[in-house]
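It would be a great kindness if you could assist me with a short task in structural biology. Thank you for your consideration; the sequence and its tokens are set out here.
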Amino acid sequence: MDNKIKVRDKEFGIYLTAQEIDLAVSRVADSINHDMKGKVPLFLVVLNGAFMFASDLLKKIKVDNNISFVKLSSYTGTRSSQVVSELIGLNEVVKGRTVVILEDIIDTGLTMKRMLEILRQQEAADVKIATLVYKPGAFTEDYKIDYIGLEIPNDFILGYGLDYDGFGRNLPDIYKIVE
């Protein structure tokens, strides 16, 4: 584990270790296992960022389930574009189902708001949100986030699925930008 790394034109310092991330993922999995007992949820993984979180989380899920993927995007570089693009759409029938959305990070909440609108239009019975990282200082929406792995300040981070212009997703730890 390097304490500092350079990705493209920016320097990043270690912020959360793989061990800290794993503990947060385990806490989220325990809560979901408890809440979903007797249900068969559809886990909806938001690509690209949530792939590592989803992979590790779903290995710890003990209830019967289905898994599908959607791809939404609202980031360019280190800033939210404030426009959500639906790059790969929902191809599962969600009507009457319990859906658990798996997201890597919720900051402004705009991307998740769009996902919730889509699921309401398709008449999901119950929708829960699980995120590895939540930035309450950046959150501008008013919906409930059901499962939060870690709350952090409004810093730009990368690693463990999170990227900077497509780079850094493969890092096992999470790094924050050094200003």
